[in-house]
């Protein structure tokens, strides 16, 4: 199966789109960063390094310090796809991030976006 071209896309290319989407809905870059850090385990310096070094999405997720164990609680549809049903593990991580930014832009409260085990 051919690799999806999104995997080779620089995280630095999609990151500004996430920020713009959030800012259009009166959310902040800081909130976008918080969501990304929650999902991937990067600290702010590590996140900035990934952007500055223009790592592709595959590398960005491969080098993530620790995917949040609660990321499996992310459910729902993004781009017409149920995130919990995505087979490819890398594509699923990308969709998780899309979904979190989506929820941020839709005005969900941060404590709801950053899933916690009950």
Task: Describe, in plain words, how this protein is organized in 3D.
There is one protein chain. It is globular, with a radius of gyration of 13 Å. It is built from 6 helices and 2 strands. It is mainly alpha-helical and 118 residues long. The chain is 53% helix and 3% strand. It comes from Variovorax beijingensis. Pfam families: DUF2200 (PF09966). InterPro entries: SP1917_dom_sf (IPR023204), UCP033199 (IPR014580). This is DUF2200 domain-containing protein.
Short description:
The chain is mainly alpha-helical and 118 residues long. The chain has 6 helices and 2 strands. Helix content is 53%, strand content 3%.
Roughly what fraction of the amino acids lie in strands? under 5%
Largest sheet, if any? 2 strands, antiparallel
Task: Give the neighbour order of strands across the main sheet.
Answer: 1-2
CATH architecture: Orthogonal Bundle
What's the gyration radius in Å?
13 Å
Mean pLDDT: 93
For this structure, what is the CATH class? Mainly Alpha
Unreliably modeled segments: none
Fill in the CATH topology.
Helicase, Ruva Protein, domain 3
What is the H level of CATH, i.e. the homologous superfamily? uncharacterized protein sp1917 domain
How would you describe the shape? globular
Distance between the first and last residues' Cα:
38 Å
Please tally the helical runs, counting DSSP H or I stretches of 4 or more residues.
6
**SS content category:** mainly alpha
Summarize the SSE layout with pairings.
Layout: H1 11-24, H2 29-40, H3 44-52, H4 57-62, E1 77-78, E2 81-82, H5 89-105, H6 110-113
Antiparallel strand pairs: 1-2
Protein name: DUF2200 domain-containing protein
InterPro entries: SP1917_dom_sf, UCP033199
Pfam families: DUF2200 (PF09966)
